[in-house]
Amino acid sequence: MIPFATPSIGKEETDAVIAVLNSKWLTMGKKVFEFEEMLAKFTGAKHVITVNSCTAALHLSLLAYGIGKGDEVITTPYTFAATGNSIIHAGATPVFVDVGRDFNINPENIEDAITPRTKAIIPVDFAGQPCDYSSIIGLADEYDLVVIEDAAHSLGAEHCHMKIGSVANATCFSFYATKCITTGEGGAIATDDDKIAETIRKLRLHGLSSDAWKRYSGVGKWYYEIEEIGWKYNMTDINAAIGIEQLKKEERFYQRRVDIAEHYTKGLQGCKCGLPTENPNTSSAWHLYPILVNNRNDVINQLAQLEIGTSVHFIPLHHHPAYQRLGYSESDFPVATSLYEHEISLPIYPGMTDEQVQMVITALREILA
Ligand SMILES: *Cc1c(COP(=O)(O)O)cnc(C)c1O
């Protein structure tokens, strides 16, 4: 049995969790701040603020940039619920544009979707492959838009030799169980903007100003003020302790995924399927290995019979009833729909053995012959 995805958790993570429990300081303590510092160093961003999911990261990023009612946010339909939902949570309207053959938002479609109400673009680095930020940031500068990157798949990836996290105005990461590194559930925002970082820090914890006591000398450290109506989105020390150990292993995890991707690409040469490639001037985090086949469901079922787990990423947002009630229909984004109809995500994670990778290749070569 080869599962589709499984996290790589070792003794380091379990020991770190036990140490936090024994310390009796369970949340918003030094483990959270240590994880944030490590992430800032890793991504090259000036500030990293952790939260309890990437969905929360996207929501707070939009709010921090003042995006809400009456505003439009351009994004891709080829994504998970989180991307579209967070725009709606902020009170804004998602405006989808179709993707290119690399699954990522097609910059050529963005300009036509820009209106006087457009405030931001949320590109999604599908499978860990960075979007075309040279074009996207160029357009954003021209039209005075903010770029909030959904980097749920792309921790560790690079665009023009810059680590993801130091490319867009704000970058949102996910540490969900199956992502490049995990904290169980968790997320983070990376940004160089001092003001945005300060606002996100405040909004993640009820809008409290924790240093209000400084302004009132003689008042104890128990004093706080609710400066905004915020959210309860902070990370716990238990989660952060897992994240610290995972981030220490990131280089190894990343190298292993690159190895597996290279094996797949070599082993599936000449098969009747489309294989993923890296765009120029980027390196992918290889969170997913998406292939394109005819008779998608049939291939998935045959692999399942051989106990090989796969998945489909994604059912595009315009195919879902909640988004159709906003006016979208299945025929709106033909490239996204066609990719969806043919896509299979193969297992790719550090715990896979060479033998398992070869079993997937052998099975696919037979099925696709
Ligand atoms: C997983 C995922 C998210 C959401 O991450 P959570 O941490 O679960 O909120 C957002 N965008 C994409 C593209 C994802 O795959």
Write the layout of secondary structure elements.
Elements: H1 11-23, H2 30-43, E1 47-51, H3 54-64, E2 72-75, H4 81-89, E3 93-96, H5 107-113, E4 118-122, H6 133-143, E5 146-150, E6 158-159, E7 162-163, E8 170-174, E9 187-191, H7 194-203, E10 208-209, E11 225-226, H8 237-248, H9 250-267, E12 282-283, E13 289-292, H10 296-305, H11 321-324, H12 334-342, E14 343-346, H13 354-367
Parallel strand pairs: 2-3, 2-4, 4-5, 5-8
Antiparallel strand pairs: 1-9, 6-7, 6-12, 8-9, 10-11, 13-14
Helix pairs in contact: 1-8, 2-8, 3-4, 3-7, 9-13
The protein binds pyridoxal-5'-phosphate (PLP).
Pyridoxal-5'-phosphate is lined by residues 53-55, 79-80, 82-83, 124, 150, 152-153, 174, 176, 187.
**Helices and strands, in N-to-C order?**
HHEHEHEHEHEEEEEHEEHHEEHHHEH
User: Which residues sit in consecutive blocks of at least 5 with pLDDT less than 50?
Assistant: none
Summed over residues and divided by their number, the pLDDT gives a mean of 96
Compute the CA-based radius of gyration: 21 Å
Bound molecules: pyridoxal-5'-phosphate
